[in-house]
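Hi R.,

Here's the chain you asked about this morning:
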Amino acid sequence: ALVFLFVWVALLLAGTLIVAGECSAVVHATGMRTEFGRIAHLTQTAGETESPLQKEIRRVSRLVAVLALGLGVLFFVIGGVVGMPFWARFMFAIGIIVANVPEGLLPTVTLALALATQRMARRNALVRHLTAVETLGSATVILTDKTGTLTQNRMTVREAFVSARHRLAAKRWPGGQDLRLRAVARFCQSLRFPAGQPSGDPMEIALWQFAGEIPELGVRAGEIPFDTERRRMSVVTRSADGGGFLWCKGAPEVVLPLCRTWSEGEQARPLDDAALALFRRAHEDMADRGLRVLALAWKPLAAGEEGREEALELCGLIGLEDPPRPDVHEAVNRCHSAGLRVIMVTGDHPHTALALAREVDVVRTPQAVVLSGEAVRQMTPAALQLALDAPEVLFARVTAEQKMLIVQALQRKGEIVAVTGDGVNDAPALKTADIGIAMGLAGTDVAREAADIVLLDDHFATIVNAIEEGRAVFDNIRKFLTYILTSNIPELIPYLAYVLLRIPLPLTVIQILAVDLGTDMLPALALGAEPPHADVMNRPPRPRHERLLSPALLARAYLFLGPLEAFGALAAFFFVLHAAGWQYGTALAPLDPLYVQATTACLMGIVLAQMVNVFVCRHPRLPLWRFPLFENRLLLAGLAAEAALLLFIVYTPLGNRLFGTAPLGVEVWLYALPFALLLGVAEEGRKRLVRRSA
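And here is the predicted structure, written out as tokens:
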């Protein structure tokens, strides 16, 4: 028996000390295939740096291990002072250590993270790093893209500014005024045509469809690709005689300076200051209405002439409409309710960005600050941090490097930052952020590799759902700790009473193990699997340095729920003794049938109280009837297993031999049950007082 106890204690302490390093346990990497191609692994091992959750679990584990060992040594010494034999003191110390080790912490943390990961996968968010789930739940700022995340990424050409007039895109214009504009839209693209249908960038598909059927003007001979620094692209086509054309499209700010003339019908007119002012006003007008504006230009090429982006002729401006996603407005408002700050970071024009931000409630006041990427580049780190103090701020015409600078500035302010990205250039920002979120549909492989979470639908509402799941993880671990620490007190107090009051030991070490590693385990794990409650997104993010073992949690478990459980367990113990005529001071042998039955009653009292406690631990403030009984089926299964195990321990010969127990009469159960119910009533009363005082 001593060897058995030594092994158990060694395993428990080793597991407790290791738990933080292992809390990111790997769920076997699983590939998931969608209609859009291979998505990154669902889960992998944790990244290079230790997550906040890992650090906190490691801290809690060390604290609990030191506390358990310290109490064991202390009571071993106290036992010697009061004259207990060595082996009795040793067994007593073992019991104290076992009673204070939360054996289920490691599996509960892993289960909470794994189940949250599965729920997030069902809601179109694939988690690559397990601990990223909880980190996302503590996020305070979301840096989000615009196109495809807040919008549908289904672009259509709504209007054009051509021949110095605004024209609706759905109409053909007289005199061939739109021919050159449509030619640029048709040929300046990098689309693919599997099965004859265009595939690629939604913006280029919209331009190609707008252009319609146009006679071929040569074959594609070269391309100057788009990048975030140039903000434009060009395509060169050549005819059989060696001549050809250069077709260019891009942001008006960068294309207009490359143009010398502009098209008015079939005429080419000089692009003087007055014409530039006209096009810039048109650009701002379209951007103010939320349209994404592109400038389209061209030039003919002589045989042997290089395709340089200079001396172009401006054909006109195109305004593309990309409507917001239907439920993004609600998702943004959920972020506001949850105390999350949403900052849009986009490559679009500031006016376009601001118009959409107002439409989806990212910006709700007239005093919003709009910063361009160029302004960010010129700011010092301190100036950027001060700029981010504005209640509402958004960034436009931002490059990947500037996006990373914004992330770093927010982190220096103590924020926990989640960042979305889809391109190769977004990888630094995704890596720098506390949580990198890549797009699964429009995202590149590099972006997905750099991210912690991959969105299968590229949808902002999915990010909000993932944050909800992440917040539930921290709450669930606290529920587990409250539940499991509560049972430490009724396991500890019998030993204190045994030493201080000189009564028979109400609970044996093997019976403590029966509670900690048997009856309590499945209900405790079930608390780690609780789905998010509706109120989780109605409170601000938890502070970065908030502890799992908060003073309120410890007071609730150790000073309120625990003593109530201990009172009921000892009451059942003494009920059995006094019913048999036991007198105070009378010694009982370890194998005395009366003593065995009394310790069984104490064990039963603890388990009954824990079966009630698991319901009141589902929320620290809300009443238990606010939680549907069948919402967490694992909890019901855990309670059924707990009841079955208790009956096995009490009423089967094998259980009696293993755990030193004896069958109990119905009257003992009826006596112990009101004490268990008293715990539930007292806790619900405490919750009501807390709600009233809030």
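One quick note: The mean pLDDT is 85.

Cheers,
M.
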